[in-house]
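Lecture notes, unit on protein representations.

Consider one protein chain, 274 amino acids long.
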Amino acid sequence: MSLKKFKPTTPGQRHKVVSDYSEITAGSPEKSLVKGRNKSGGRNNDGRMTMRHIGGGHKQKYRVIDFKREKHGIPAKVKTIEYDPNRTARIALLFYADGEKRYIIAPDGLNVGDSIMSGKEATPNVGNAMFLSDIPLGTVIHNIELKPGRGGAIARGAGTYAQLNARDGRYAIVKMPSGETRLILTTCLATVGSVSNSEHSLTVSGKAGRTRWQGRRPRVRAMVMNPVDHPMGGGEGKNAGGHPRSRNGIPAKGFKTRAKKKYSDKFIIERRKK
C-alpha cells in the first residue's frame, strides 16, 4: 500500500492525500456476509441528540467480520483483500476447506492465495490465529481476546499491533498498542502480525465535503462559543476562557477520569505513558 497525492487543480485537491488502494482485489463485497446498516445521526431512541458531530454521510453496508476465529484446524485460502467503509483496516475474504466463507481483518503482508489456520495446529505465520500459550515470545500480534471465546477486542485498527513479551503461569504479559503492559489469560486467541493499512494516519481529507461524506459534521471550537454553550466560551477577542475542560465541565489535560478501584487494575503491570 502507498499514498497518492494530487496536482492542485482545485482547492480540495491541493492538500488531499489518500491511499492508492493498490492492495484491493475486489470491487464489491460477498453478498452472504453483508447486512444493512442504519444510521442514528447521533440520536437516541427518543430522537434526542446524544452524540454531536454525527450525521449524513454516504450509505454503507456492514460486512460481518469473524473476530472469534473459532474454526480450529480447518485451513482457509485468502480469496480477496477488500475495502471496508466501517473500519480503517482492510478485510480479507476467506474460503474455508469445508465450503464456508468468512471475513477477517487483513494483517499486513497477507496476500491473495495464502493459506491460514487457527487453533493448536496453526504455526506462527502472518494471519494465523493462535492461543497466547502457543505463540513464540516477542511475536507481534493483533485482534487479541480479553476473555476466552469472546472474540478479538484489542489492536483492530489500521496499523496497530501488540507484542507478546512473556508468560507467567496462567497469564501472558502483553505490551498493548498504547504502551500499557497487561496480563491476559494464555487461553485467549490472538492473530499473528500487525493490522494492514498502516499509512491510514497519514491520509488528508483535503476538503470539508469529503469529511461530510464520511458522516462527520463540523466541530465548533469551545473558545468561539458563548458562555451559555461551553465553560470556555465568552470574552472579548481571543481570551483563553479559563482552564481547558469539556462541555460539561470535566477538566482536560491531566485530570484522571479512571475509576480508583477498577476491577482490571490487578491485570495492568505498567500504565501507558502520558
